[in-house]
User: Fold these one by one.
Assistant:
Number 1:
Amino acid sequence: KCVESGGPEPGVGCAGRGVITSINFLEENGAYDDVDYVSYDVLGDVVCGGFAMPIRENKAQEIYIVMSGEMMA
């Protein structure tokens, strides 16, 4: 299975809220049943709390933080 979700267009709405809504939708529809791993690629800031949801809600058993000095990273 592979699922990708996004948020509202830039400057409109709250992208963090989109993350929360997406994760809740996936849970309700059984997307996390019988999977070996789940990968979240999220921003490190806490806009509306959504970007940190996989960590905050104990949805992660392991967390890898990847950082870069590149301005566009």
Number 2:
Amino acid sequence: IFVQCDVGDKASVDQLFSKAAANFGRVDIAVANASILRTGAFVDISEEDFDAVIRVNLKGVFLTGQAAVMSRTPMKRPAEPSEIASIAVFLASEDSSYITGQTIFADGGRLPLAYTC
């Protein structure tokens, strides 16, 4: 499939991942390879050119990474403070008296995923 995407725009990146998932069932790998280059002497590069490079080369990687992680997270959202607090309250209560040396992951299902940078 071909999907035109503005990697500096969150809605566009989210739409890209939605279309890819709809076509392939899921997204197994994401490569953030969009890039632009503006050349010239440092003092001659305009603020507009600088902003464009940052938007594509930096923000694009950030938004693509976020969309990739969220597409592979079963809950499809970050935790609510109350969801983390309830775990802390449980661990501090007598109800958890037989639990020792355990790690409880409150990550919406992200743990089984492996990411290599």
Number 3:
Amino acid sequence: MPTASEQTREYLLGALDRLLKQKNFMDITVSELTRVAGVSRMTFYRHYGNIYELLNINLKQIMAELPTYDKLTTDEYESAIANYMNFFSAHSDFIKLILRAKQQNLLRENITTVMRSLMTVKSNSLPFKERDLKYYVSYHANGFASVIIDWFSNGQVETPEEMAAFLYKNITT
């Protein structure tokens, strides 16, 4: 059974989803959100400072669930990427909510942070100077995030496995 806090979060996210079908994210007020969610403003502010924080905190919680792969061998990258794609697909409702709110940068920042850790592990075997390595990791992590955002924006036509194969091929070249 969900806790009161989890239930409040679900009510707020559901209300935000409904409101985003009617108006822009920036036009939604806390009063309106709490009214549609059926929770008090005091309850909202107990958990969040503003509506953006509602999205940010929930995204960070989801991303914290994403498995990390600290000691991957090169042969395991494709499997790790497939796991990542399946993870994002499992959270598609929330990711689509973020995209409807036009908060792609929030999603990009969070995905990039996680992917940097994976890319950093892989990059230890690459012949780059430290400065060049930083750019290599940034390039691939941001590219990965952009592909995920485009995949969701285009309706996830490809399977997570197809996306993983595409990403693996491009990350390893």
